[in-house]
Fold these 2 entries.
Entry 1:
Amino acid sequence: MAPEPQPRRGMSRALLYALIPIGFLILVAFMVLSGRDTSETAAEAAVEADSTVPQPAEGAEPAAGATPPAN
């Protein structure tokens, strides 16, 4: 009977091909457990919508160095 062929490299390819999806599953599990996949709630979106930049009042003097809009 012929002897079993030995892999030419340090790790067999079957083990390497098995480690790729295992590493992906570990990465997904880490992201799920750490909370990176949480979606924004409606209350959080409302808070962000209220924090907009205020518009200048009509008739107010422009800030120093600001150019007036070209209408």
Entry 2:
Amino acid sequence: MSKSDYLSLAGILSALCFSAALLLSFPAAAQNNECSMMCNGIDNQCYRSCAGSNDGLSPFGPAPGSGASRSSYGAIAISDSDKGALRWGKAYGYESRARAEAAAVRFCMAGGLPGCRVRLWFFNACAALVTTSDGNWWTDWRGSLAAARQVTLAECEQDAKGRCTVREAFCSL
């Protein structure tokens, strides 16, 4: 190959790298979130995490509850509230309770607030997280996504008098 062939190839590779970077950053830019890859030492897997998103910090994988049935654990970790600020992390599809809990805590800690602790773990079920604007939260699990949402929302509405928002609802089935 001649020098001009190498320069041409280098130009093509540069254009491809730029295009790939642009395409990979588009979902994050469209959501106006700061996203990065996060790897944990528990199961040596990497996940996309988005700080500042209301959808928590979710592991890559199939849509919750959409995959083949298998035994799996899920967990929700929630930070201590600071004047209404609340961060959480969720994990699902793990083969052990310990791994699901560890992943949820790590995703929560990536949100930057202190005091992330596991508030709920579940096995082959669905969970929901409901919050109010002043930082109160409710979480529960059930056998279906609809039931988890309904029960958790009802618990919040009974206590908070209707100021409730479902922030997460997902399955680990």
